[in-house]
Amino acid sequence: MAGQNGKLPHPNAQLVLYYYPLSYYSQKVRMALLEKGIPHALEFIDINSGENYEAWFVKLNPECEVPVLRDGTRVVADSARIIDYLEENYSDAPYAALSPPKSSIEYHKFKYLREAIDAVPVEYITYGTLKQPALLEKTKVPNFVKKGLGDRFFQRQKFINTQMEKHPEYSAIFSKKLSRVLDSDNNVGNTAMVNAKLNELESLLDRIEEHLRLNSNSADRKNWWLCSEKFTTADISLSILLSRCYLLGLAPRFWSISRRPYLAMYYQRINERPSFQKVAITHITTSDLLQLGGSTILYAYGLQIMGVATVLGALAIGGEISSFRRRTTPDFRMKVLCILLITLSLVSVGYSWEKAKESLKEAAADLYEDAKVVAGEAFEYAKEKLADGAELAGEAYDIAQKEAKERWTQAEHLAEEKLEEAKKAAHDGAAYVAEHGPEKIKEFKDAATQTLWTAEELAARKLAEAKVLAEQGAEYAKEKIVEGAAIAKDKIIEGAGMAKETIIEKSAELKDAAGEAAVKAGHSIVEKTGELKDAAGAAAVRAGHTISEKTVELKDATTQTLGNAKDYVVDKVKEAVKSV
């Protein structure tokens, strides 16, 4: 049973990828799914007919772009976000992790390079070169590429306007998309801008070449991929970028055995990965296309084929295709297969054999013309390779001649050294410098380059870390201020309640203490009053006795004093009488 969007549901598939095989960003996500080993279902979106602008897909992704990933009820759009989502949620066993540990120095290199590669404006490079063949340097883009990429790209305005009339409820979304499409069409038509983007890509590939060279010349990194020993999502980004350049015929401009040789070896190594062979359009076979899109994708290449007959025909001639595809180009194989399928389709639906033969004859004539084009391209390619070989041979001859001259000069020097011991010592020193100097210079250069890369990456990392820490610090401070204010408020309320209870409690205690003190004071006053009264009485008694005693003593003393005075006067009178 078909779903509401006209697509077959996938009841047993947790992950469903809505994609188009020629889409650059779809290829990146598909390769990530294959590398991680995540089971998934594929939902072919025929963007050649504008299916990505239909209402059901707009509900799925308002940006009207592929790829889109559905994981259960969750929908994720945009290839970079999808790959990050897969890495965050599907990196534990049995799935593969495609990024270095975040604590490692390799992670910062990986992050830097992946972001740089993902920032490449592929739209300019793809559609700018398709619209301006002069930028392709005499390379011929296969017709099926032009059909699958270029024609579809420049029909976007028509698709959007058609859907806007059919679904006015999405007019805001379509208007916004149409505005971006118009800007994009203008940009890819700007020769200077497209050429500038191609030159920027040259600069990026120069940096990647140097990085690969350093890896290759380091004993412990000789077998590394781009950023680490393990294959990462940065390698996926670079793989699909190189595949797109190759598809457009830009490979001779960007890499060869004499121009960025390490990148050339990397691309050769990438071609051996099973995931790349399943995703890269240069590896996709006719049977793959049948599996991916059935008659729909073949129709997208301009071939009207009945679905049932397509499958039956593909099964019937599968063996022949298997050997035939190894001897021909993908475009040429596609046309041959489709001629056979057209014939089977016409016969299967009741066409007369004569009509089938006429259709076959017409298709064969077209095929003959294409075969001549393919032959011409092969001849031109052979001439180019012959010229390249002659150029390489000339370079080899020049190198050999130069080396022979150098060896002859060395022989003369050695002969002279045999004549004089001093010259021999001098030559030995010169030979040592000649032998080890370039090596040391190369080592110093590699070290300096690596240091520069490390310094740039470290600076970028520290800046990013500082920014993150600053943001985290601000958020933390904000949280703590709010938390502190709440705690302070609670403490104030709690303290006020406790203070109120304490005041009431202490007031009662003070009141009790005051009453008790008053009672104690009354008792003390009574007791003290009695004591004072007793003391006063005792003092009065003692005072009476003392006064009586002192009165007697005073009386006796007075009597004694008067007697003594009398005796003194008598004596003096007697002495006066005697003197007379």
Write the layout of secondary structure elements.
Blueprint: E1 15-19, H1 24-36, E2 41-44, H2 55-60, E3 68-71, E4 74-77, H3 79-89, H4 105-118, H5 122-131, H6 143-153, H7 156-166, H8 171-188, H9 191-216, H10 233-247, H11 251-254, H12 261-270, H13 274-279, H14 286-300, H15 307-316, H16 318-324, H17 330-348, H18 353-419, H19 421-579
Parallel strand pairs: 1-2
Antiparallel strand pairs: 1-3, 3-4
How does this model look, in words?
- With 580 residues, the protein is mostly helical.
- The protein is 74% helix and 3% strand.
- The protein has 19 helices and 4 strands.
- It has helices spanning 24-36, 55-60, 79-89, 105-118, 122-131, 143-153, 156-166, 171-188, 191-216, 233-247, 251-254, 261-270, 274-279, 286-300, 307-316, 318-324, 330-348, 353-419, 421-579, and strands at 15-19, 41-44, 68-71, 74-77.
- Strands 2-1-3-4 form a 4-stranded mixed β-sheet.
- Helix 5 (122-131) packs across helix 9 (191-216), helix 14 (286-300) runs antiparallel to helix 15 and helix 17 (330-348) packs antiparallel against helix 18 (353-419).
- The chain starts with 14 loop residues before the first strand and ends with a helix.
- The relative contact order is 0.05.
- Residues 291-327 have low confidence and may be disordered.
